[in-house]
Amino acid sequence: MVEKKDSLNPLHGTLEQVGLPEVLDFLSTMAKTGVLLLRNGNVTKTLHFKRGVVVFATSNIPEERFGEMLLKEGKITSDQFIEASKQITRGKRLGKILVEMQALSPKSLWNEVRHQVQEIAFSVLSWDSGTFQFFEGEERTGENITTSLTVQEILLEGLRRIKNRELLEKVFPSKDIVFERVVPANRPTNLHFEEYEKHVFKLIDSQRTVQEICDLSEIGEFETLKTLYIFFTIGFLHIKKRKDKFEEEQKELTEARHLIRNYNEMFSFLYHYFLREVGPIAENIMEKYLNKIKQQEPILFQRVTLRSNGTIAEERLLENLRTVEKDRISILIKWLNEYLYSILFVIRKTLGQEHEKNVIDTLKKTRKEVFEKYGDNSR
After folding, report:
1. What are the pLDDT digits (tens) for 262-275?
2. Do residues 291 and 326 touch, judged by C-beta distance below 8 A?
3. Beta-carbon neighbour count of residue 273 at 10 Å?
4. Claim to verify: residue 15 and residue 115 sit in the same structural domain
5. What's the pLDDT score for residue 128?
6. Which end of the chain has the lower number of beta carbons within 10 A, N or C?
7. Domain hosting residue 81, numbered range
8. Which residues pair with 49 in a beta bridge?
């Protein structure tokens, strides 16, 4: 949170502690007038505010000076730049000389000053380190040509240019945040959103987490996070809540426990049926197929053993399930089905199709809900 200081102690801090978008939003919301001084190593830039709006900017980087920027972007020639530079005197600026030389029109001069301010303002939003100080007071740029840039405009375009993944990782250290849409109190009317940004905005439904939105988005995780950050900083999103991971995990594990117990009832029935038909060798055969499953899915089935009643170790399976990163229930169902149908296959192979049909019919009658809900009917 940005805190207000008195006139003798200007607002100041580090960008590692307080993000620049938050600083800019504070100055805009409070309609501050003054100069924001930003330093990052040897680079120094300033943003001049008047009642919460950026009217001018400076930079000590040579390429961001007015003349060098015009030259780099091909707005003037090198000959025009050299000639105009020779004529600069106290009180006579480069822009005025270029207009007099007809290298720039008056309209172009004002547009290019605005463009220079934009580029300097946009560039500082990529900083993830440095310091800031705000000196409040009557704004005096010493410039006759100023512009008017809202903080929302700066944030929208400046954040679009972010390429630093680490910066977004600091903003979203956890992706369990749930956003809700809001309409800003002073909604900007001059902001244009791209279609892909509108796509991401529509995915926000006050229920989905940031991670779930990233999974559904068509533009990839990095661009989706950047878009969410933009909407948040310009006031179109609020944090509604954070999903309780412990609660979610416990709910998932409860479902998994119920699922394993249902399958274990079927495994036990199959084991005793098989035991009655072939004798003690039934245990060896079922253990053999369980070991095959272990080889195919070692993470989920490591150290999972067959019990004396034909069931598999529930607690060990649940403990292994915790290490699976996502889609836990669907993965669990897949491999429990693999084991189930392995046993059905060996019954058909050993005892014949009639026996297989008998046990399947019994399962469908006695475990109808479980068998129909989770069983793979495609087999």
Report:
1. 899 999 999 999 89
2. no
3. 19
4. yes
5. 82
6. N
7. 11-151
8. 34, 54
Hey, which residues does 179 pair with through a beta bridge?
A: 239
In angstroms, rounded to a whole number, what is the distance separating the alpha carbons of residues 335 and 348? 20
DSSP category for residue 63: G
Same domain, 123 and 186: no
The Cα–Cα gap between 88 and 85 comes to: 5
| Number of domains, the chain | 3
- 3 within domain boundaries: no
The strand pair at 34-40 and 131-136 is best described as antiparallel
CA distance 221 to 138: 43
Q: Position 162: which residue type? A: I
Q: Is the pTM of this model over 0.70?
A: no
Output the six-digit token pair for 261. 């117990």
Classify residue 199: in a domain, yes or no: yes
Q: What is the mean pLDDT of the chain?
A: 86
Compute the distance between CA of residue 228 and CA of residue 159 in angstroms, rounded to an integer: 10
Q: Are 258 and 354 contained in the same domain?
A: yes
Q: Which amino acid type is present at position 7?
A: S
* Burial of 202 from C-beta contacts in 10 A (0-12 / 13-18 / 19+): exposed
Q: Name the region of 309 (left: φ>0; alpha: ψ -120 to 50; beta: rest).
A: alpha
Residue pair 132/23 in contact (Cβ under 8 Å)? The answer is yes
Sorting pLDDT into bands at 50, 70 and 90, what band is 327?
confident
* Residue 356, CA distances (Å) to 9, 112, 288, 343 in order: 84, 82, 19, 10
User: What are 311's strand-pairing partners?
Assistant: none
Tell me which residue of 65, 64, 47 sits closest to 56, measured CA to CA.
Answer: 47
CB neighbours of residue 134 within 10 Å: 23
Cα(121)–Cα(133) distance, integer angstroms: 15
Query: Are 103 and 62 contained in the same domain?
Result: yes
The answer to whether residue 6 sits within a structural domain is: no
